[in-house]
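It is worth pausing here to work through a concrete case rather than discussing structure prediction in the abstract. The textbook approach is simple: state the sequence, then state the predicted structure, then interpret. We follow exactly that order.
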Amino acid sequence: MLKYLFLLLAGLITLTTQAQRTLTGIITDTDNHQPLPSVSVLIRGTSMGTITNANGEFHLQAPAGNLTLVISFIGYKTKEVFVTDKQSKISASLAPDNKQLSEIVVTGYGIIKDMRSMGCSYATVNSEEQEAYAPIHDNRFQAVNLHPLSTFAADVDRAAYSNVRRFLNDGELPPADAVRVEEMINYFDYQYKAPTGNDPVAIYTDMTECPWEPTHQLVRIGLKAMEVSNEKLPPANLVFLIDVSGSMLAENKLPLVIKSLKVLTQQLRPIDHVAIVVYAGAAGVVLPSTPGSEKMAIMDALDKLEAGGSTAGGAGIQLAYNTAAANYLEDGNNRVIIATDGDFNVGVSSEGDLEKLISTQKEKGIFLSVLGFGMGNLKDNKLEILADKGNGNYAYIDTYEEARRTLVTEFGGTLFTVAKDVKLQVEFNPHFIESYRLIGYENRMLAAEDFKDDKKDAGEMGAGHTVTALYEVVPSKGDDATYPLKYYQMNLSNAYYNEEALTVNVRYKKPKSNSSKVFTQTMRWNSQKVTRIPDDFKMATAVAAFGMLLRNSEFKGKATYAQVLTLAESAKGADKEGYRAEFIQLVKKAQLLHNGTPAYSNVMADDDNQ
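Step two, the predicted structure:
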C-alpha cells in the first residue's frame, strides 16, 4: 500500500513540475547586436509576462506545452516567437521600425540621439514639457435663503501641498490651478479625537473671527476616522504598478519610486502579498504575488527596474487589475498602487476609458491609490481623477521624507479604507448666517440631491485620516427670511434660544457595503477671537490664507504673507515632525518671490481690553 502511495505522490510531483517551467533568453538589436533592456516579453493569450534587464536578459515562468511569445519595444517591430514544449532558452532580435522612430517623442532630460547608435533602449529629449492641471474657479458666496444646503465629497488627498512645496523649493511660484486649498489644509495633522460610537467617523465644529475679513466669521468642520493599529489591519493584496517609460528617467522619478516602494515593503507583514507590474511600450509582470515575509525578493525586483520607452498606461492598469483579481482576498485589502508622472500616451489613454475601467474594478472590491512623481511632465489632472474613481487617495511624492510620511507614518490610512463615499451636507440657519463660501473643494462639489443618492461617488477616508473644511460666513443682519428647510420649521424663538447656527450631516458607506448611513452634528453660534482658538484651527486658517494668496484669489480680502506667518508661528506647537516649521519657511519663500517685505501683521494682537 505504501509503495502505491509513494508512486502516486511521485506521479503528482512529476505532473506539477511539468505544469510550469522557466523560460530564459536574451533580446538584441538586429543591426548592432546590442542587448535591449526593458523589452516586453508576454505569453500570447495570457497576462503572464516580464521585461528584459539591463543586459537584455529575461526570466519568465511559463506553463507546459507549446506557446507563443510576443516581444515588443517602442521603436522596434513587434515579433512573435513560437516556443515548443521542450524549449527553455530563447534568443531573439528585434528590427528597428524606422517609421515609428521618426514619430516617437519620449520626454526626459538630455538631448535627442539615435537610440541604436548609443546602444540604448530609449531616447531622451530636452523639449518643451508641460504639466497639466484641472482648472479651478473659486467657490463664491451663496445666499442662505436661496441656497440653504452646501454639499460636497470628503477629500483626504494632499498632493497639492507637496507639489506646491516642490515649486517653492525650486524658486518658483506654483501655477494657480496647482493650488487646491483643501489639499493644502488637509496636509497637516489635526488632533481631533477618534470616534467612540458605532460610526467610523466623528464630527467636530467651531468658529472664529475671519482674519482676512474681520466682519465675517470662519467656521471649521473637522472629521476624524477611526484608528486601526497596523497589527489589526486585514491582510493586503497589493500590486505595485510602476511606470518605467522614458519620461521616468529623472532622479526624482523612477529612482525615487524605487526608494519609496522599498519603504512601503519594509512595512509589510507576512500575511500581506505584493506583485509588481511595469509598463512602458507594453506591460508585464516582473514579480508574481509574493508574501511580505520575502522582503528581499520584492526589493531585488524593484532594484532591477530601468526606465525606457513610451507609456502604455491603460494596458498596465488592466494587467495590474488582472493580477490583483487573480490573488483576490475576500476579507482583505485588495489594492493597486500606481507610481507614475501620469503621462499616458499609448494604449487605453482616454480619461473616459480609464475611468470606466477603474470604476468597474472598484465595484469588484479592488481599489486604486496613486503616487505622483517628478516635475515638468506631471499630469496632475489625470492622476487626481484616477484616484477619485478608484476609491483611493492621491499623493505627490517630491522627496524621500514625503514617501516616508505617506507610506510609513500613515501606512494604515494610505492603504486601508474605513469609510467610503463620504459626503457632507451643511444646512445653515438664516437667522445667524446670511451667506457662506466653502474654501476649496471646488472639484468635490455635489448637488443637494446627490447627498441621498447612494450611486453617487464621493470621497474615502482611511484609518486615522482627518478631513478639515473651512467656511467663510457673513453674519445675518437679523432679518427673517423665507426658508424651506429645518430652521424654518423650528420655532423661531427656539432657534434663537439654542443658538444653533448650522447642522452638519455626514453620509458614508462601510467598505464592503453599497448602502449608506447618515449621522448629524449641530453647531451653536459662538464667535471668538482668533487669539483664543486652538492651535489646530489657527494652523488651518493660516494655510487657507496662504493658499488664497498663492492663487491670488479674489476672496483673499486683507490677507498678507505677514499675517499668515503670524498665525502659523502662533500655531506651531510641539511640531514633532517639523511640518509646521517647514510651512513657515515656505511662506517666507513665497513672500520673497512676490517681492514682499517681511513684516508681521497685528492680526494676532490680543485686543480684549480695547
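Step three, interpretation. Residues 205 and 221 are 5 Å apart (CA to CA). Residues 1-18, 100-128, 596-610 have pLDDT under 50 and may be disordered.
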